[in-house]
Amino acid sequence: MYLSRFLSIHALWVTVSSVMQHYPSVWGHYDVCKTQIYTEEGKIWDYMACQPEATDMTKYLKVKLDPPDITCGDPPETFCAMGNPYMCNNECDASTPELAHPPELMFDFEGRHPSTFWQSATWKEYPKPLQVNITLSWSKTIELTDNIVITFESGRPDQMILEKSLDYGRTWQPYQYYATDCLDAFHMDPKSVKDLSQHTILEIICTEEYSTGYMTNSKIIHFEIKDRFAFFAGPRLRNMASLYGQLDTTKKLKDFFTITDLRIRLLRPATGEIFVDEQHLARYFYAISDIKVYGRCKCNLHATVCVFDNNKLSCECEHNTTGPDCGKCKKNYQGRPWSPGSYLPIPKGTANTCIPSISSIGNCECFGHSKRCSYIELLNTVICVSCKHNTRGQHCELCRLGYFRNASAQLDDENVCIANVCDNEFLHCQNGGTCHNNVKCQCPAGYTGILCEKLRCEEAGSCSSDSGHGARAQGSLTLLVALLGITGPHLF
Ligand SMILES: *[C@@H]1O[C@H](CO)[C@@H](O)[C@H](O)[C@H]1NC(C)=O
Ligand SMILES: *[C@@H]1O[C@H](CO)[C@@H](O)[C@H](O)[C@H]1NC(C)=O
Ligand SMILES: *[C@@H]1O[C@H](CO)[C@@H](O)[C@H](O)[C@H]1NC(C)=O
């Protein structure tokens, strides 16, 4: 028992090492997945996680405004300069291209002077709140890699919530609150990302950092991705391995930076004062010149390429995975549960390649001698486990030590491996054959078969009448023995 266990382990090891010789490129699989990084020396290849390059994701989104008719200019209206209620010579007219401010202008090329921007209607219905939802949808899970930056053309709003969805807009969670007075607006204590720590990084905060009045020059609002990364990777994001290690093990952290949609909820425009100047409501509106969202397709670390085809982003999955996010194993590759690849490279990380299903291996691969297969990560290969019927080997295609291949049996035959073929007590070689080392009957000329039980010419199908004589003679002998009532097990 112990011996046979030892033997099968030994056989396994032999198999593993011989397989290794056939798969020298296994280590190379992971190298397919490399990322381009920017260092002080320039752009270099980094052999890390298997993921697409980060890019400007605003090229791939759909934008939706609520209320739908909130964009200014239909009908045309005049608005005043924020800082000066008596400068009301600006006009918004949707039907005149130079005076129109459609939503697309939030995503166009920046750097033009004067800048182009989306603008809402003015707050003429005060005190009814002027609220606008700007929903950005990718129809694809994406992972944020840099700060979300929103540049306002007018003052930054007094109150705003950035929300995110991870399920294509079915449910929404707040990402960050922004207000000139967090306590008043949202009953939250004001905080900044710098007040957080590794342990509180997932906390949703209200910040007053970006909501100071329109008098200041700053027009920008951030959602700080990099400051959050820095809690793991260090202030200059030098230790990305530490961040990747965390992302590999903490799903919540990974999900925090993952979105399918973003929603900017503008709740109250900049007023710059405590009281709203009811005489000049045309001073109050929202205007956004730019939105930056940097990220990459989420491919669960199973793809380096994400394509935009038919207005849809999708990962070009490797490692025998499939789905828009490479979120499952391909058909016939479900030999173990799907799991994402890891950020860290070998030896700490793994590609978590999907492996062939047992059902697709079928009986043939283990020749019916085992129903269990095991995946050996190191070799990226599948081997049969606990081969029965005295077989061994990756496919149970070899005989265990002390057993020999039964030449007259097929590989899937239960009798393919046979113990000591002959001995002088029970298993006699027939027709005058002699037992050689208990392994082989040495047959006299004219006879063959494991126990010399067959006529050689019979096997070749060429028995002449002369050699057929011997067979007939044997037949008569059998008859004679039967008639005489003598039996001899050794005879046949
Ligand atoms: C904006 O979206 C929120 C849900 O995220 C919803 O409760 C609110 O009514 C929407 N506001 C407008 C103006 O559509
Ligand atoms: C399965 O994955 C391996 C490694 O990535 C690859 O070489 C092979 O072509 C894939 N097979 C299929 C059918 O996709
Ligand atoms: C060899 O295999 C054949 C075919 O299954 C079988 O009939 C025969 O008994 C086997 N020989 C021994 C010695 O088991």
CATH topology of the domain at 55-297: Jelly Rolls
Structural class: alpha+beta
> What is the number of beta strands?
30
Tell me, briefly, the overall form: rod-shaped
Strand fraction: 25-35%
Say which molecules are bound, naming each kind only once: 2-acetamido-2-deoxy-beta-D-glucopyranose
Q: How confident overall, as mean pLDDT?
A: 80
Cα distance, first to last residue? 34 Å
Q: What value does the Rg take, in angstroms? A: 39 Å
Please describe the topology of this protein:
Elements: H1 2-22, E1 35-39, E2 42-46, E3 55-56, E4 62-66, E5 77-79, E6 90-92, E7 118-119, E8 132-144, E9 148-152, E10 159-165, E11 173-179, H2 182-186, E12 206-207, E13 220-223, H3 226-233, H4 240-249, H5 251-256, E14 258-268, E15 287-292, E16 294-297, E17 306-309, E18 312-315, E19 321-322, E20 328-329, H6 358-366, E21 372-376, E22 381-385, E23 391-392, E24 398-399, E25 404-405, E26 417-418, E27 434-436, E28 440-442, E29 447-448, E30 454-455, H7 456-460, H8 465-484
Helix pairs in contact: 3-4
One 2-acetamido-2-deoxy-beta-D-glucopyranose binds at residues 406, 408-409, 413, 415, 418, 450.
Signal peptide: 1-28
Keywords: Disulfide bond, EGF-like domain, Glycoprotein, Laminin EGF-like domain, Repeat, Signal
Domain Laminin N-terminal: 46-296
